[in-house]
Amino acid sequence: MATLVPTLAPTQASAAEPLQTFENQKPAWHRCDPSMPASYQCATIKVPLDYSRPTGKTIGLAISRLKTSVPGKRHGALLFNPGGPGGEGLDMPVMMREVMPAKVREQYDLIGFDPRGVGRSSPVTCGLTAGEQNMEHPYKPQKFGQDVKRARTVAEKCRAKNGDKLAHITTRNTARDMDVIRAVLGEKKISYLGFSYGTYLGAVYTQMFPERTDRFVLDSAVDPGRVWRGMIQVWAEGTEPAFTRWTKWTAQHHRTYKLGDTPAKVKKTFWNLIARADRKPIRYGGVKFTGDDIRAMLRPEFFSPKGAAETVVELKKAADGRPHASRGSAAPDAEKRQRRSAVPGVHVPEDNGSAAFWAVVCGDTAAWPRDPEQYRRDAIRDKAKYPLYGDFGSNITPCAFWNEPVEPVTAVDNGVGLLTVQNQWDSQTPLISGLGMHRALKGSRMVYVAGGEGHGVYSDDPRSCANRTVNAYLSTGRLPARDVTCKTSGHRNPGLGHPIIPTPQHVPGTPRF
């Protein structure tokens, strides 16, 4: 994919309208990739690095589109975000074309973009090693000094590599970029479908640009009142009821899994396995797992009891030296990086996802404690309160050593009408998080999937009970009269292999929403 920079329209921005130059751009659309459909087009536009100084430095923003094949039915443009922060969205029009029914996709030009600092949009890098990218560590008294040093090193390397650019890789600026995209496309309003972190991005857009908000769907929502430390900590809070549910389910299926015929026995089996792995790491799928590694790996799996039970059975076999089923490798991600890196004019650093993640979660809000001892106290408290993940969720991060944000965090509190969608059992944005978003957006309607498992609801699965409501809203613009509860029919979007939501980490690494 050649990176083509557009020629800005000759109109000079006046002092009163300094963004007019950017909004008047004429993108140089071209075929994205020979292996993709010819109708899938890409372009690069320019946006201000710092919107408070729009005549200063600029950065490139990669955008893409699939125009509707039925212009007579066209309603407008539908923009996507897959989550993250740090998730690439340029390919989403192609993916979503396969998910959406004709009655929906024919009404829109489908629009993708890599958010600023991500993928092909002026990517950030901190020059992090693989070890430095792994920030998922439980609190250990004897290792806390190492955790503090690691977090400080990551923050220092990010500052050194990015200079003044780092402070402007934020959700508020990405929302501003979305509004420039809207203007460049010639739209008075923009429609939007955002997943996971993309729900927060969408909510911030509605707060900043309510009059330009059209049909918005927020799937698997971040609680805007918890950004961002609280959203990592909520993984610990949300996992405990999922673990309790897993012990009950597994006990009921003792004949199959033989992990215990009561919830108490299943729980004991699990914690005995953790203690065993802490004494001697278990080689599983070619990788050695400590008890801490197993806790981090299984945290998202407990939200889908069958998969978690199967994994624990295989881990027990591995611990005993018996043949066991291995996990899949990360080859697909490696292959994706290889294909992307081979595109002319594009170089995406290996640590881009991690660098962009920390840039956003540290740069969005000043609510991160600056005293390392606060993290120590919180991790000790939360380990006792949430044994599975509390010591992970409250341990120190690079944000403790980040520069102060250039803007206050966005207070999301408005009456814009939109639709939120939430599974009951979601590992990355638990139900309590989705309810927080619903409360903040007072004009929203919520589709709640009772019994729904996994991260991400809207999909191409015809059994998904939420699809009907989402498709009706996107095709008509009419919200349900009240919140909707529907029951799952065996439908599950596990993140793993889901067409939209990035795969959750299954070994310790950078957190993802």
Describe this structure in a few short sentences:
This protein has 513 residues and is of the alpha/beta class. Helix content is 38%, strand content 14%.
Describe the structure.
With 513 residues, the protein is of the alpha/beta class. 38% of the residues lie in helices and 14% in strands. It is globular and about 65 Å long. 49% of the residues are buried.
For the structure shown, list the relevant keywords.
two-stranded antiparallel ribbon; 10-stranded mixed sheet; 18 helices; globular; disordered N terminus
Between the first and last Cα atoms, what is the distance in angstroms?
28 Å
Q: Gyration radius, to the nearest Å?
A: 23 Å
Question: Largest sheet, if any?
Answer: 10 strands, mixed
Strand content: 5-15%
As a percent range, the share of helical residues equals 25-40%
Number of contiguous helices: 18
Structural class: alpha/beta
Query: What letter string, H or E per element, gives the SSE order?
Result: HEEEEHHEHHHEHEHHHEEHHHHHHEHEHE
Instruction: Give the strand order of the largest sheet, numbering strands 1, 2, ... along the chain.
Output: 1-2-3-5-4-6-7-10-11-12
Summarize the topology.
Blueprint: H1 20-23, E1 30-31, E2 40-48, E3 58-66, E4 76-81, H2 92-99, H3 102-105, E5 108-113, H4 130-133, H5 144-162, H6 171-184, E6 190-195, H7 197-208, E7 213-219, H8 229-252, H9 254-257, H10 263-279, E8 282-284, E9 287-289, H11 291-298, H12 305-319, H13 331-341, H14 352-363, H15 372-385, H16 390-393, E10 418-425, H17 431-440, E11 444-453, H18 467-476, E12 484-487
Parallel strand pairs: 4-5, 4-6, 6-7, 7-10, 10-11, 11-12
Antiparallel strand pairs: 1-2, 2-3, 3-5, 8-9
Helix pairs in contact: 6-7, 8-10, 8-12, 10-11, 10-12
